[in-house]
Design brief:
The structure holds 2 protein chains of 2 kinds. By secondary structure, chain A is an alpha/beta fold. Chain A is built from 17 helices and 9 strands. Chain A starts with a helix and ends with a helix. Classes of the chains: A alpha/beta, B alpha/beta.
């Protein structure tokens, strides 16, 4: 009966198994819901989805199934992260357009207006079934890319009330394939902490037990002691400036959140590629440089190294001495990276660029080779994989 | 019997559906949501609605799954044998039933709350798979099998501190309690304070939702904080006055300590107030 929904969910990437499908049938058979689409949606979600990060995918798949749409893939493709969109959007503007935007009150304002117009448009077309974004009367037509894509226009169906809930897509923030935002970054860092769980469990202390039992003249006196604390030690290398300006906000969020999660967390900044000097405070990058060699010698191999950077630079920065854009380096960046890799076996590189862009940058390929392909995208999923790698 | 909002608890439609589904199919119901959205309260209200007992198993970081079944106190037994105390030859005297055992052996159906399952070790949920599925377990020491007389309704809460294993999730139904919107919040306040002045509620909710929207707040105030705050406001006339004459320059609401729980957030509010003051000039 619901095999269509089941297949749609599977295709949308919601982890469902036969058990969930049978459960759904059982629920309907037992009469928990009857002839109420809204209730069915809620029950189906309760039964089939086990984690809120899949709610958004479920909502999309449910809508697709409900509408009998076949182009599910297109629906999913149409979901473009806001951030990404904004960056692309900014890049496509000419100087005059930028000036125009400034006169409108800045980009923020423009995007705000853009969204408002979309909402208005949606209301006006409530009776029809026309996609929003194709009715090119708005001044925004030139970049008429809507982050919610073709999804917005479905409001006009007969089951208006019912469709509305999943069309709202309130769980977008919980989807783990999106880039990290303020909410899910905490989650991400919890996962970082997970692999070094410090069990408060106690262990049996043999020596103390024997001593105490002997003192009690053979009457058993069990002694316990707390398990040793095993805190995670992390060295964080952050790429600042240059090509990272786009990502610096995300980086700083990750960084500030990381602060509260670890006891041993030492952040270092570098620019583009790792060279002979790094710095501790971004504001004083030219004043207080620390020789990278000192960093390599200070921390033991049990430190986990996390590098955050987009790995997009001129290939010469990695391969040749003197390749740095800022100063003359005696040794190539690649050599320094290799030293880092050799010193710290637990290493992961987080790349805020989407993985599909990695292949097109020569330097990204070079770096991936250098670090044995331990590069992960900065999404919850990527972070989890990175943590798994670190915990090995 | 269907679960519904009670005189002290407001349940959304989705929550009612989820509870109904879990009760009907006798599956554990996993509840997640922001802290302070009434996850634990749900189990209490459910027990009250169904008119049954509520057994609560609070999970701590040191809790082991086996403790929920039973514990064999070998140390007391050894000590007792040294002292020659009677009854030492019977193993059963040294087996202490845990919460699951208790829930399984009740004469009527009970609600069992496993509170904050994410606090425990990662392996904890995996160790309970069989017990939750079949609702029975084996006691090795005595060789008996404890089987549920009436399958208890199991409510499990999680604060998302740890990922739960797939095999465990598969056995549960899942509901995520969303943060209530203004309407629901109004209903919740009405339930908690039936005699409260509408003006106070209106103003307080205004401030509350504004505060939740403040950028960069580390811990957003939740429902339980709002309820506490209202309780304080009702008892303090001066603070109430301050709330009514809310002047945008003083961005920090009266008795903010009940809403904002850490000093960074307080500082953030002060900074915001400062910025507002400068804009006002």
């Amino acid at each position: 009966m619901f095999i269509g929904l089941f297949e749609t969910l599977k295709r949308a990437g919601v982890p469902v198994s036969l058990r969930e499908l049978l459960d759904l049938h059982a629920v309907v058979e037992r009469g928990v819901v009857f002839a109420d689409m809204q209730a069915f949606y809620q029950v189906a979600r309760t039964v089939m989805v086990k984690d809120e990060r899949y709610f958004d995918r479920f909502d999309r798949a449910f809508a697709a199934w409900f509408e009998g749409l076949e182009n599910l893939d297109a629906t999913i493709e149409a979901l473009i992260p806001d951030d990404w969109l904004r960056r692309e959007f900014e890049k496509q503007l000419s100087e005059e357009e930028k000036a125009q935007i400034a006169s409108l009150g800045g980009l923020e304002k423009l995007i705000e207006t853009f969204k408002q117009r979309l909402e208005e448009q949606q209301e006006r077309h409530a009776g029809g079934n026309k996609w929003i974004g194709t009715g090119g009367t708005s001044p925004f037509g030139a970049y008429g890319y809507n982050p919610e894509g073709i999804r917005v226009g479905q409001d006009g169906s007969r089951h208006r009330r019912a469709v509305k809930v999943w069309d709202e897509r309130r769980f977008r923030d919980y989807d783990d394939s999106l880039e990290l935002g303020t909410r899910n970054i905490k989650m991400a860092l919890r996962r970082l902490r997970k692999f070094a769980r410090q069990g408060a469990a106690e262990e049996f202390d043999v020596v103390a037990t024997i001593r105490e039992t002997a003192r009690d003249a053979g009457l058993l006196n069990v002694q316990m002691r707390p398990e040793r604390h095993n805190a995670v030690k992390v060295l964080l290398f952050l790429d600042v400036g240059g090509s990272m300006d786009d990502h610096i906000r995300v980086c700083e969020e990750l960084f500030s959140a990381a602060r509260s999660e670890f006891k041993h967390l030492v952040p270092y900044y570098f620019h583009n590629c790792l060279y002979e000097g790094v710095w501790r405070q971004n504001a004083r990058r030219h004043g207080e440089r620390i020789p990278t060699m000192d960093v390599l010698h200070t921390y033991g191999a049990d430190y986990q190294v996390v590098i955050v950077g987009d790995a997009a630079m001129s290939p010469y920065e990695i391969t040749h001495p003197g390749g740095s854009v800022e100063h003359f380096n005696d040794e190539s960046g690649g050599l320094w990276l290799k030293r880092l890799v050799d010193t710290f076996p637990h290493l992961a590189w987080l790349n805020p660029m989407p993985p599909r862009a990695w292949e097109f940058t020569h330097s990204t390929r070079l770096i991936r080779e250098l670090i044995d392909d331990r590069m992960y995208p900065m999404t919850l999923e990527g972070l989890e994989n990175a943590m798994r790698e670190l915990a090995k | 019997m269907a679960f519904d909002s009670t005189s002290s608890y407001i349940a959304t439609d989705a929550l009612k559906q989820a509870v109904d589904a879990a009760v009907t199919l006798e599956r554990p119901l996993l509840i997640k949501g922001e802290p302070g959205t009434g996850k634990t309260l749900l189990a209490e209200e459910l027990a009250a609605t169904l008119d049954t007992r509520l057994l609560t198993w609070h999970i701590k970081s040191s809790t082991k799954a086996a403790q929920g079944l039973y514990e064999y106190d070998a140390v007391s037994r050894l000590r007792d044998s040294q002292l020659g105390i009677e009854g030492v030859e019977n193993v059963a005297n040294y087996i202490k039933p845990g919460k699951l055992w208790e829930a399984f052996t009740q004469d009527a159906r009970v609600v069992l709350l496993i509170d904050e399952i994410d606090k425990a070790d990662i392996e904890f949920p995996n160790d309970l798979l069989q017990e939750l599925d079949r609702m029975e377990f084996h006691v090795f020491e005595t060789g008996e099998t404890i089987k549920a007389k009436h399958r208890p309704i199991i409510v499990i809460t999680s604060n998302n501190e740890k990922e739960l294993p797939d095999a465990f999730l598969r056995r549960c139904f899942f509901h995520y309690i969303e943060f209530p919107d203004r309407e629901t919040m109004q209903a919740i306040v009405d339930v908690h304070f039936p005699d409260i002045a509408p003006k106070l509620v209106g103003e307080a909710l205004e401030v509350f939702f504004e505060l939740r929207d403040a950028p960069g707040l580390k811990k957003k105030p939740s429902t339980s904080e709002l309820v506490d705050w209202l309780k304080l406001l009702m008892g303090d006339e001066l603070a109430r006055e301050a709330l009514y004459q809310r002047d945008p320059v003083k961005a920090i609401p009266p008795l903010a300590g009940a809403l904002v729980k850490n000093e960074q957030d307080t500082q953030l509010l002060q900074r915001l107030a400062f910025m507002l003051r400068r804009q006002g000039r």
